[in-house]
Amino acid sequence: MMLKIAYSPLYQLDLPEGHRFPMEKYELLPEQLLYEGTVTSANFFEPKDLDNRWVLNTHDFDYFEKLLNLRLSKSEIRKTGFPLSKALIDRETHIMQGSIEASLFALEYGIAMNIAGGTHHAFTDRGEGFCLLNDIAISANYLLENFLVKKVLVIDLDVHQGNGTAQIFENKDEVFTFSMHGASNYPMHKEKSDLDIGLPDKIQDDQYLDLLQLHLVPLIDQVQPDFIIYQCGVDVLDSDKLGRLGLTIQGCKERDRIVLETAKINQIPIMCCMGGGYSPKISNIIEAHANTYRLAQDIFF
Question: What does the pLDDT read at residue 16?
């Protein structure tokens, strides 16, 4: 048994100078985990090519065809936040496959991770907010349609509401969506998750962690999931330029500990996808993300 982590060189992408999406974290995070000895090269796997039928179980055919043929309108491209290119689409499909394969490893080992993913702003028919396809939804639907699980709990603790995930699963009882996010942050129009907890600006560690404990523990009994997908964005940090919340790096680590220990204690397999992180200092982003992997090793292995 070992912690398995999806990673591909395709996760990295050349973006115009000054672009606010920190693409370098996808190279630096694996390097940091290897350097400090949290993992070895054996922990990483490179995703295979994605079978498009699993995308079409979640996303509309017309939208996916436009993506593959690079035919999004200027307005649609602008909403995604990325310049459209074949390299971007290749990156996106590898991320989707990475989360599917990580989910399968989680069923086997209890937990697995995707260095990328957490693309919760992608809807059935459109992308926005640095998300073109929704790996959370694609992975959940893959598990359900292959009869590998019966009930999935999505725990989305990115600072931004998982609006795309909420829309995709609004009429699907087999998936329960829980989003705890900045109430006044993007997206301004919120979709309806099964459980939404809107947080005030500048919320501190203690209040945040108390709220998480208050809602997560009873949620396990209520939902009775046999699989968890955890979107663990680190844009909750007080240093994040898009976040508005007030968590310290230690508070973010304790957030992850609560979720991972809850999964372990209840023997529920969990797949973690990284989500956002936009602190000006890349070292803050890497440290907060690395804590999730350190905890996974300590708690599960």
Answer: 79
Tokens at residue 174, please? Answer: 């087999």
Find all residues with CB under 8 Å of 79, minimum gap 6, and list them. 126, 127, 128, 129
**pTM for the model:** 0.97
Burial annotation 214-230 (CB, 10 A radius, 16+ → b, else e): eebeebbeebebbbbbb
Amino acid present at 226: D
Average pLDDT, integer, range 37-51 = 97
Residue 84 belongs to a domain with what CATH number?
3.40.800.20
**Cα 147 to Cα 266: distance, rounded to the nearest angstrom:** 21
The count of domains in the chain is: 1
Residues 94-137: pLDDT tens digits?
A: 999 999 999 999 999 999 999 999 999 999 999 999 999 999 99
CA distances, 121 to each of 60, 137, 156, 168, 265 (Å): 15, 11, 11, 10, 30
Q: Where do the DSSP E strands lie in the chain?
A: 4-6, 44-45, 111-114, 152-156, 175-182, 195-199, 227-231, 270-273
What's the whole-number mean pLDDT along residues 78-87? Answer: 94
Token digits of residue 64: 């996916």
Specify whether the CB–CB gap between 203 and 131 falls below 8 A. no
210-237 mean pLDDT: 97
Q: Which domain holds residue 68?
A: 4-11+19-300
